Amino acid sequence: MNEFELITRLTRSLPTNKTVVVGPGDDCAVLDVGLPDRLLLFKTDAVVEGIHFESPTPPEKIGHKALARCLSDIAAMAGTPTAALVTIALPRSFDPNFVESIYDGVNALARRHDVAIVGGETTTNPERILISIALLGWVPRGKAVLRSGAEPGDAIFVTGELGGSAAGKHLEFEPRLVEARWLAEHFSIHAMLDISDGLAGDLRHILKASRVGAELFTSAIPIRREARRTAKAKTSAKPPLLAALTDGEDFELLFTVASRDAVQLLDAWKKEFPKLSLTCIGKIAAAEGINLRDKEGVRPLTAHGYTHFA
């Protein structure tokens, strides 16, 4: 059983109440707590030593990643983060200076995005460090971007480049909060998420929620230099395109927009964010599944992104 099969099983009969606008199945929960102009976003995420970082990792980078993962999910909903709780589980032989430096990494990123760290929990965990962040945010009413709005004919866009994140990006990425809010303010974004488990896996989340399919243009997929370098240096490494499709932990925005808006969006993006690339990588199709189009024709995409327990 993989991660997503387990999630499906666990969320079949969860209790709910009248505050829930969006429950399990999107990047954040969306709650209506009675504010006239906004909805509440609620997110939790965890990083585990040996899974999301290795023991030699500088502690400040561990803290940065722990919070940045949650911030990236707030970005995926075009929201603004506000306050976080930090839970940290430590081996009995922990180094307090190391732990304090983890918090330095959390705090530095929080200050950049005006996020208050308002408490949390400390506990013991045998052998390895675990950090869990619970994050609150908000989004204006009518502006939350979900996974479920993609429509046939939509253009599919991705920010930045994909693949090779293990070379360092997964510890240093900047959540696309500003960019996501700008998109939602200036264009009708139909569906959006952040790429955490790989393009091949995360695009399927949009397609499943929206009940559509997709065609990707292989020549358009932006591949990070590190993925190409790794492929050249190691014969056992993934080919660059496969790395871009499946590596995960890119934390770039993946979204769809009506094709009629695509050119205007690209032009406006270049003016607003000249240092960050934006690429149209395909289109939404009516038939389910993902196809790859290249100079040899069209073939189904069988690769998936990263999943826990697989």
Structure report:
The structure is a single chain. Helix 2 packs parallel to helix 3, helix 2 (59-76) packs parallel to helix 5 and helix 7 crosses helix 8 (240-246). The strands form two sheets. This protein has a seven-stranded mixed β-sheet with strand order 8-10-7-11-9-12-13, with helices on both faces. The chain has a six-stranded mixed β-sheet with strand order 1-2-3-6-4-5. The mean pLDDT is 95. It has helices at 3-10, 59-76, 96-112, 169-172, 177-186, 199-210, 225-233, 240-246, 262-272; strands at 20-22, 29-31, 38-48, 80-90, 116-124, 130-140, 155-159, 189-194, 213-217, 253-257, 278-285, 289-294, 297-300. The protein starts with a helix and ends in a 10-residue tail after the last strand. It is globular, with a radius of gyration of 19 Å. The protein has 310 residues and is of the alpha+beta class.
Question: What do the pLDDT scores average to?
Answer: 95
Number of DSSP strands? 13
Radius of gyration: 19 Å
What order do the strands of the largest sheet run in, or round the barrel if closed? 8-10-7-11-9-12-13
- Class by SSE composition: alpha+beta
Range of helix content: 25-40%
Distance between the termini: 7 Å
Number of helices: 9
Give a quick account of the main beta sheet: strands, pairing sense, barrel closure.
7 strands, mixed
Q: Which regions are unreliable across 5 or more consecutive residues at pLDDT < 50?
A: none
Order of helices and strands: HEEEHEHEEEHHEHEHHEHEEE
Coarse morphology: globular
Strand content: 25-35%
